[in-house]
What we know:
The protein has 422 residues and is α/β, with parallel strands linked by helices. It has helices spanning 3-13, 15-29, 34-40, 89-105, 126-140, 159-173, 197-213, 229-240, 263-269, 286-290, 329-337, 345-348, 351-365, 371-396, 400-418, and strands at 45-54, 60-69, 77-84, 111-118, 149-153, 221-225, 244-250, 253-256, 296-299, 318-320, 341-343. The chain has a six-stranded mixed beta sheet with strand order 8-7-6-9-10-11, sandwiched between helices. Strands 1-2-4-3-5 form a five-stranded mixed beta sheet. The structure holds nicotinamide-adenine-dinucleotide (NAD). Nicotinamide-adenine-dinucleotide is lined by residues 198, 225-231, 249-251, 274-275, 286, 300-302, 322-324, 349, 352.
Amino acid sequence: MKFAEQKDQEESLNLFTSTQIVIKEALTKLGYHEEMYELLKEPLRLMTVRMPIRMDDGSITVFTGYRAQHNDAVGPTKGGIRFHPEVDEEEVKALSMWMSLKCGIVDLPYGGGKGGIICDPRKMSLAELERLSRGYVRAISQIVGPTKDIPAPDVYTNSQIMAWMMDEYSRLREYDSPGFITGKPLVLGGSHGREKATALGVTICIEEAAKKKGIELTGARVVVQGFGNAGSFLAKMMHDAGAKVIGISDAHGALYDKNGLDIDYLLDRRDSFGTVTTLFESTITNKELLELDCDILVPAAISNQITATNAHHIKASIIVEAANGPTTLEATKILTERGILLVPDVLASSGGVTVSYFEWVQNNQGYYWSEEEVLTKLKKVLVKSFDQVYEVAATRGVNMRLAAYMVGVRKMAEASRFRGWV
Ligand code: NAD
């Protein structure tokens, strides 16, 4: 095994450790002392809960769940709840730290939080999922609330689960609390635009990056890895903007057409898990997809896809990370040295939390905005954030990932300092 491969595998083993490495680098660049890193290197709180839930066959299963709150110096913490068999403590902690960074980058009055339950929702009935969702809210009720910690959907959780959770919290508190959670159905105080917010945020970052690189979006060749919530909406937005989406993929393979794929047809045929390539005979691999000759590459599937092993073979001029952690730190260095503009996940995928914030604001004021208002506000926030990160990268001579971490970490470091914590 080559050294670079070995290093990449080590990095991929621990997203938590690589997040700590960049936070430390960002704090050092900003001139903070070691104490600040000691404060921010881990969440302030991590609650582990065990929940006995009655299953449909009458048996009891005891589920384990977590809620991590990274730093609440800026304001209440905010972040999704993941239902997945591979949820673990380290992942929840790392994801809460990413949420702090995202909130700092787009300048929201929040710190980062994250929750997760070890379970496989694909094997559970709706009634079991409802009992688990309500049980989780009862278990963590002491540390969450509209001014403490505001959850949201994440992997395998959706607006129905948010609705059950909001109802359970409102019952516990004995008053209606729509601001307890975001990502709710519209009739329960959800926000217009939430569903496509992440993809729109990525699109705005692509537009800004293309301007910097002098690439015209009309006719630009775009490759998107992943055809789920984020990837499929994004492919559609790129297609509608006049770009040529020449490659898409899912967990089973990838599709390529140098003249542009029929995105509307693919959207129509994909299933609810984001699978579509199984319908076609002529496919390429995900590895080949990432190395296609294109202008813009958007990893929108899973982590650790661009590593020291393939970073030298990437042909795109711009990479915009819709997925969390698709590029390792070693690969980030290689891509930057090669002059590829890489827009990091903590900036590019912050559209979702931004519209979640808008939902919470609307809940608190009891006055609701049109989709147009939401999307206009989102665009303003993301363009400003992109410009800020780009300028820090240019003036401090650092890559876009480190620049984004510097912007993201500064607000919570300053808030912690003013509060007298460090
Ligand atoms: P999803 O589950 O809806 O879709 C995932 C897609 O990736 C599917 O098409 C699936 O087939 C594909 N995939 C799975 N394993 C793969 C593999 N090994 N190789 C290639 N493709 C594979 O998920 P999503 O909500 O679209 O999220 C995708 C990424 O974006 C995740 O990293 C997620 O954390 C991140 N993200 C999503 C949102 C959001 O609002 N949806 C917000 C922020 C970040």
